[in-house]
Amino acid sequence: MNTIPLDYEILRLIWWLLLGVLLIGFAIMDGYDLGVGTLLPFVARTDPERRILINLIGPTWEGNQVWLILGGGAIFAAWPALYAVSFSGFYLAMITILLALILRPVGFKFRGKIKDARWRATWDWALFVGGFVPALIFGVAVGNVLLGVPFGLDATMRISYAGNFFGLLRPFALLSGLLSVAMLVSHGAAVIAARTEGDVAERAWRYGRQAALATLVLFLLAGLWVAVGLDGYVVTSVQNMAGPSNPLGKTVALQAGGWLANYGLHPWTMIAPALGVAGTLLAYVGFGARAWKRTLLGTTLTIVGIISTVGLAIFPFLLPSSLNPAVSLTVWDASSSHLTLFVMLLATVIFLPLVLIYTAWVFRVMRGTVTATSIGRNPNAY
Amino acid sequence: MIDYTVVDLSRLQFAATAMYHFLFVPLTLGLSLLMAIMESVYVMTGREIWRRMTLFWGTLFGINFAMGVATGIVMEFQFGMNWSYYSHYVGDVFGAPLAIEGLMAFFLEATFIGLFFFGWDRLSKVSHLAVTWLVALGANFSALWILIANGWMQNPVGSTFNPDTMRMEVTDFMAVLFNPVAQAKFVHTVSAGYTTGAMFVMAISAFYLLRGRHVALAKRSMAVAASFGLAAALSVVVLGDESGYVATEHQKMKIAAIEAMWETEPAPAGLTLFALPGRDGNRFEVKIPWVLGLVTTRSLNTEVPGIWPLVEHAETRIRNGVVASGQLDAIRKDPKDEVARAAFAKSWPDLGYALLLKRYRDDVQAATPEDVRKAALDTIPDVASLFWSFRIMVGLGLYMIVFFATAFYLSTRHRLGDNRTLLKIAFWSLPVPWIAIEAGWLVAEYGRQPWAIEGVLPTFYAASGLTLTDLSISLGFFLTLYTSLLVVMVILMVKTIKTGPDMADTLIEGAAGARHLPELAAAHPER
To answer: For the purposes of burial, counting CB atoms within 10 Å of the CB of B264, is it exposed (0-12), middle (13-18) or buried (19 or more)?
Structure first.
């Protein structure tokens, strides 16, 4: 073990950052696909218009979705306890997300194969579900993380769960779900506005502006709620940051406004919520001015800011337990072994830059405005 | 307490989602490579027909790929959802290959698949060819990493139990990568995928030749598929999965069950050609001497152990496991108990066997000799289903070798297109590789029972503590959605095939419009 050139606590911190990178990567890359799916029936009203949106995201959405798949795999590899507790605890919510996501690949591929209005309308709504439902439930899940999740662990690390699907739908969690939808819809609208023309682009500018405003309002509202209406969690014993990954050996207390403690201790972290607010404002102004570069930068910064805000607020917690706060999962007690974290870091350092390079190349090849004419040129278009 | 109905339903759900998923994976593996070969010929010779072949098979590939993606999303998450104790217990080892699969394979495959379809008029010939090869490469890398993960479930090397974290942890990552079981599985599985791709191309080309349609395209496709299929079918059998089965104890149990061999025979053991296996012996059997020993051990004097001796051995390991479990309890009570730690460092490999007792005793220390006996008997997988699945797989594998060899011979004589008997056989052989593959997975995974991780973690102990309602809802929705999508997919595939390659790049207009397709294609170039 002493041959590993990075300390255990450093690796845990790196993997906490990488977890953030993956979630943000997913929300930026596949997030706009989810947003476009949600907007599909509204921004595009006729079949030719809908085909423009579908062919806009069609060539690249599959690669984007891998951010989610990789997120699942990386949480499994780096934070196995988090993977085990969250996915089994949120079981029916996860099932709902998966069923919705399953509709996307077949929706894209099957929709265009038969030229029948009812057939295509059915798949349009399937693609809407495939965008809206995951966007909503991911947000609800994050809201529940802030509220605490009713799970317990016995001495052998077997998980018990005292909640159910409807227990997830608490007011704050629903607010968080709506925030997630608004955020991804404005991001999707920014992409549509940037790469289409005419009526479709016009509607995207308008809906996107409203979504950006809604994002700002909901984000501020959620922040206020966290400050005055929610109990945060605080570790009250000294944690060995390089100790074995066993979440049973600490004490945790609930504290009003506790989720804001990190911002008081380290004021530089305020940059995250500030980025979220600045991003939504930039997007709002950009949508109004019909300036796609500013708008897309704005919605992207919004995502970075909002997800970082949550991560920094709950640090070092990954998943607080409302049933038995002492068994909450934290960065210091729910990771993989020292060796696995190191090997996985090597793999990431080698492959992630490659992924970014060829993804950028593919986006470059597929750049340009999508119109009915550009779709007509390609026999493989959806 | 463990709810065994929930465990059984969880197993059913995993089996169903995995087996559905694996209807699409082998075709992706085989067809992507065949498309890359066809496009290579196009780029090298410049002949338009090879581009049209790539496009046509690409259309069918796309429909299949969409289903592969749809059913694949579930696979990455359901370990945590339905098998949360498994995820905690072995995530440190098992999670890494899954994550690397995402990084190295899924991104490659999924990023370039879009360009394969949308890049024809945006890329140079050579760049597009590179894209097609990268898709094929991504698919194959994906198989490599998931089989490294699966290989570790069959033969858990390079890891140890950590009493402080109550889970398995990696000690030697290279051992996990170069696990002989994983390597054998990889070669066997991708070859099976190539065979599937070849059979798919053979069957559909035969359909066209029988009707005298698209003859030039079908003949060339068949010629490629015949040679590719022969090489692949040979490698499936020659590089069979069995070579890895001698590695470990339970793999030995699997071999013994596959052969319905209850007692150890003197080496080299005979191969059972036919038998009626019951729960504790065969009522009837026909054996070919020597063959089993030669195939599995590749030697004349290594014994292949029978089921009963392996059960006795399991009893010993369970008793040792009880001791290991006691030492673990001592460590948990006093983490500084160095004596217990030293003892446990040696005894931990039997800990998993003690977990088998959890079905009968909550406190394994209180287990009676009868409990131990019952737990040891649990290590026998279902002999009859393994025995028959294996024979179906091998029989169909041998059939495909003969089939592809004949097709290849006729193809070299340029007589492939005229032999109507062979064309009919080719068409009706379409489902053969899928049946063989599903039977093969049944042998591999049902034969792994009662273990989730061989010798380490029993399946029943690995499941999440979900409710019956949870499972009924999820299983019901999965089966309904998957089956509906499968039906839609088959309908679309059949339509695309009937429409044919000339129209592969044109729209199917529904039943009424189909008759007017040529006119439509001319009248609506914008589509």
So the answer is: middle
Task: Please report, for chain A, how many H helices and E strands are present, in that order.
Answer: 13, 6
Is residue A207 included in any domain, yes or no? yes
What is the identity of the amino acid at B428?
A: W
Residue A229 has pLDDT above 80, yes or no: yes
Q: Which CATH number fits the domain B183-247+383-446, given the four candidates 1.10.8, 1.20.140, 1.20.120, 2.60.40?
A: 1.20.120
Domain hosting residue A124, numbered range: 8-365
- Residue (of B318, B317, B313) closest to B359 by Cα position: B318
> Is ipTM over 0.90?
yes
Mutate which of B355, B464, B496 to disrupt the A interface (most A C-beta within 10 Å)?
B464
Q: Pick from B108, B470, B506: which is nearest to A91 by CB?
A: B470
Q: Is A179 exposed, middle or buried (0-12, 13-18, 19+ CB in 10 A)?
A: buried
Q: Taking the CB of residue B476, how many other CB atoms lie within 10 A of it?
A: 11
Please indicate, yes or no, if residue A294 is contained in any of the structural domains.
Answer: yes
- Which pairs count as long-range contacts for B470-475, CB under 8 Å and 24+ apart, including other chains? B470/A91, B470/A92, B470/B6, B471/B6, B471/B9, B471/B10, B471/B13, B472/B9, B473/A92, B473/A95, B474/A91, B474/A92, B474/A95, B474/B13, B475/B9, B475/B12, B475/B13, B475/B16
> SS3 for B206-232, per residue?
HHHHHHCCCHHHHHHHHHHHHHHHHHH
Between CA A203 and CA B449 the distance in angstroms is 57
Q: pLDDT digits over B494-516, tens only?
A: 999 998 887 544 433 333 333 33
Is A288 among the domain residues? yes
Tokens of B388: 């028959």
User: What does the alpha-carbon distance between residue A181 and residue A132 come to, in Å, rounded to a whole number?
Assistant: 7
Note which residues in 171-190 of chain B have CB less than 8 A from chain A: 171, 173
Per-residue pLDDT tens for B69-82?
999 999 999 999 99
Minimal CA–CA distance to B304: which of B287, B319, B325?
B287
Does the residue A271 lie in any domain?
yes
Task: Give backbone dihedrals phi and psi of B46, rounded to 5 degrees, phi first.
Answer: 75, 10
A365 vs B58: CB contact, 8 Å cut-off?
A: no
Residue pLDDT, tens place only, B349-408: 999 999 999 999 989 999 999 999 999 999 999 999 999 999 899 899 999 999 999 999
| CB contacts, 8 Å: B525 with chain A | 376
CA pair distance B348, B353, nearest whole angstrom: 10
Contact B108, A361 (CB under 8 A): no
Q: Which of A65, A75, A88 lies at the smallest CB-CB distance from B464?
A: A88
B339 touches chain A (CB under 8 A): no
Does the pLDDT value for residue B521 go beyond 50?
Answer: no
Identify the helix (H) or strand (E) that includes residue B286.
Answer: strand B282-288
Extract long-range pairs of A1-4: CB within 8 Å, 24+ residues apart. A1/A338, A1/A339, A4/A338, A4/A339, A4/A342
Count structural domains, chain A: 1
Cα angle for residues A97, A100, A104 (degrees, 5° grid): 130
Yes or no: say if B379 and B455 are a contact pair by the CB < 8 Å rule.
no
pLDDT score for A373 = 83
Please list every residue in chain A whose beta carbon sits closer than 8 Å to the beta carbon of residue B72: 69
Q: What are the residue ranges spanned by the domains of chain B?
A: 183-247+383-446
State how far the Cα of B274 lies from the Cα of B287, in Å rounded to an integer. 7
* Interface contact flag, A365 B505, Cβ < 8 Å: no
Side chain identity at B128, as an amino acid letter? H
Structure confidence at residue B140 (pLDDT): 95
On the 0-12 / 13-18 / 19+ scale of CB atoms within 10 A, B388 is middle
Instruction: Find out whether A330 and A316 touch, Cβ atoms under 8 Å.
Output: yes
**Interval A147-182: pLDDT, tens:** 999 999 999 999 999 888 888 999 999 999 999 999
